[in-house]
């Protein structure tokens, strides 16, 4: 009889102990789960801060690139109010419509379509040659070959009248045209020259 009572007491204590262990582990699991989600929220906030800082760095780099381009650019006046295009064509997006009294900086002449690549309001775009007041510096810029080492000069481009030179057409180079952000286009071009967009 005593043995039976002892056994029952032992079973009750073991059951109670096991239930306390399960309860303790469950509580720990809940605590850790809460900490995990708190850390995930914190991680997301940190990732957002990193993204924001990265974007700000890129914006600053673009501004620096544009300021550096301005040092070698030619300041010009305008004949009339004009549109500042994203690409050298009236069919592309207008970045801004600019008042005649404003001035802008010319970077280089776009040889395939009577446009100048220019800087206005920290943006890079294109303006029609007919919209600007020409002077000696601007005429010199028109004749000047591109200074970008990745951009072949007009003299090195194949003549379409005479057909491609077979060895020239097999060469793949980088477009190298100046982009809106002040960098250079990295598209690969077979046979040299600019890509379809520039």
Structural descriptors:
single chain, two-stranded antiparallel ribbon, alpha+beta, 198 residues, 3 domains, rod-shaped, SH3 type barrels, 4-stranded antiparallel beta sheet
Helices, strands, pairings?
Layout: H1 2-72, E1 74-76, E2 82-85, E3 94-98, E4 104-110, E5 115-120, E6 123-128, H2 136-143, H3 166-169, E7 172-174, E8 188-190
Antiparallel strand pairs: 1-4, 2-3, 4-5, 5-6, 7-8
Biased composition (Low complexity): 146-159
Region (Disordered): 143-167
Could you walk me through the main structural features you see in this protein, from its secondary elements to its overall organization?
This protein has 198 residues and is an alpha+beta fold. Helices cover 42% and strands 19% of the residues. The chain is built from three helices and eight strands, in the order αββββββααββ. The chain has helices at 2-72, 136-143, 166-169, and strands at residues 74-76, 82-85, 94-98, 104-110, 115-120, 123-128, 172-174, 188-190. The N and C termini lie far apart (100 Å).
């Amino acid at each position: 009889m005593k043995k039976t009572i002892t056994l029952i007491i032992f079973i009750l204590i073991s059951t109670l102990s096991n239930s306390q262990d399960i309860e303790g582990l469950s509580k720990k699991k809940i605590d850790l789960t809460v900490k995990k989600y708190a850390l995930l929220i914190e991680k997301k906030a940190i990732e957002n801060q990193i993204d924001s800082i990265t974007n700000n760095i890129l914006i600053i780099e673009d501004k620096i690139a544009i300021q550096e381009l301005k040092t070698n650019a030619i300041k010009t006046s305008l004949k009339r109010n004009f549109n500042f295009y994203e690409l050298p064509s009236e069919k592309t997006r207008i970045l801004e419509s600019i008042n005649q009294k404003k001035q802008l900086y010319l970077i280089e002449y776009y040889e395939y379509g009577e446009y100048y690549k220019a800087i206005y309001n920290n943006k890079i775009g294109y303006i029609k040659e007919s919209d600007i007041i020409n002077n000696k510096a601007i005429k010199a810029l028109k004749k000047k070959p591109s200074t970008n080492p990745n951009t072949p000069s007009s003299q090195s481009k194949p003549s379409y009248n005479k057909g491609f030179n077979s060895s020239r057409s097999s060469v793949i180079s980088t477009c190298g045209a100046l982009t809106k952000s002040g960098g250079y286009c990295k598209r690969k071009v077979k046979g040299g020259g600019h890509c379809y967009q520039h």
